TrEMBL record:
Transmembrane segments: none annotated. This is Ketoreductase domain-containing protein. The keyword Magnesium does not apply. Residues 32-228 form the Ketoreductase domain.
Length: 311
């Protein structure tokens, strides 16, 4: 049993395991075009490698550093030598270059099926009274605007090749458990922006019914971002291996994890227990169920009548 934060499942993991092995037939991405942002390092690079193992039609890697993207492609090919990989260096806040790159991808491969949005930044960790609003906005822009730009560009790119069809898209947003945990001093800029991205995608999915959104907290993973965080914060838990979020994300986009759409999940949670709890997680109406941010104590009345269970 791994040591970690409070969990939804009894069993938790700190490393990959058989249930999320991306080479199993149920997790195959054969015929799917997979876009990974933030693929130049950290969790994005590990995720590229896991998707390569799942045998997609093509892997499309985005980041700003061309050399680092090439390194990710090499790492991914070591997992699956035959995989088709394209790299694109672009700033995700630059909507026109992202749209033009993804339109070309859609034209070449017929569209984009899966998006894993790993790009992110850690704004300075500091009390809100002291943060420089200009720096604060830089982090906010990367997290919130890049999420919007990516989601828009993928849907629009698919429309260029399939104008009469709303091609299904599965969009995985990398978030942080900080959006659920009690407020932690110094993290206002980071957690505030991550929360905004979650709500933005919730609305995006309602407006675009062909987009299935999953929010995943990857756990604590040793990356450039974690190194930066550890300059100011001592984390209470040991890091997870990057194979855990990477393989978990391949599982979360699979048909068997569709019930987790619009939810927030931690990659450390055991997938067999999640599947066993599908009914409670989904609930009996939209916005109901578990693993979602609610408002405790509300509602108590509907049309003047007490909501069952609140009398
Ligand atoms: N590591 C953790 O423990 C942890 C915990 C909770 C949540 N997360 C989340 O997981 C995700 C991945 O984090 P990580 O730890 O792997 O971070 P990382 O190693 O710092 O990687 C972040 C990636 O984002 C890319 N990026 C940043 N700004 C960009 C922009 N404007 N345009 C395009 N790409 C941009 C960077 O690529 P370039 O610099 O090449 O552009 C880099 O590849 C983030 O959303 C993070 O918030 C991480």
């Amino acid at each position: 049993m791994a040591t970690g934060p409070p969990s939804y499942t009894k069993v938790t993991h700190s490393n990959t395991y058989a249930g999320i092995d991306p080479t199993q037939p149920g997790l195959s991405t054969a015929g799917k075009v997979v876009l990974i942002t933030g693929a130049s390092g950290g969790i994005g690079r590990a995720t590229a490698s896991s998707f390569a193992a799942s045998g997609p039609q093509a892997l499309i890697l985005f980041g700003r550093n061309a050399d680092a993207l090439a390194e990710t492609a090499t790492v991914a090919r070591a997992r699956h030598a035959e995989v088709t990989i394209q790299t694109h260096d672009a700033d995700l806040c630059d909507a026109s270059s992202v749209r033009s790159a993804l339109n070309k991808v859609a034209a070449e491969f017929g569209g984009i099926d899966i998006v894993v949005h790993c790009a992110g930044v850690l704004p300075p960790i500091a009390p809100l009274l002291e943060v420089d609003p200009a720096t604060f906005m830089d982090g906010y822009k990367t997290t919130v605007v890049s999420t919007l730009v990516t989601a828009q560009a993928v849907v629009l790119a698919n429309k260029t090749t399939s104008p009469n069809e709303d091609k299904p898209i599965t969009f995985v947003n990398l978030t942080t458990a900080g959006v659920l945990f009690p407020p932690f001093p110094g993290t206002g800029a980071y957690v505030g922006s991550k929360m905004a991205a979650v709500k933005l995608l919730e609305i995006f999915a309602v407006e675009n019914k062909n987009v299935r959104v999953h929010n995943v907290h990857p756990g604590i993973v040793k990356t450039a971002m974690l190194d930066k965080l550890e300059e100011t914060i001592k984390l209470p838990f040991p890091p997870n291996d990057s194979s855990l979020p990477a393989d978990f994300i391949v599982w979360v986009v699979s048909p068997e994890a569709e019930f987790l759409k619009n939810k927030i999940v931690f990659s450390a949670w055991d997938v067999d227990e999640l599947k066993a709890r599908k009914k409670e997680i989904v609930g009996d109406s939209p916005g109901a169920g578990e693993l979602w941010m609610g408002f405790q104590g509300y509602p108590r009345f509907k049309n003047g009548q007490p909501v069952p269970g609140t009398e």
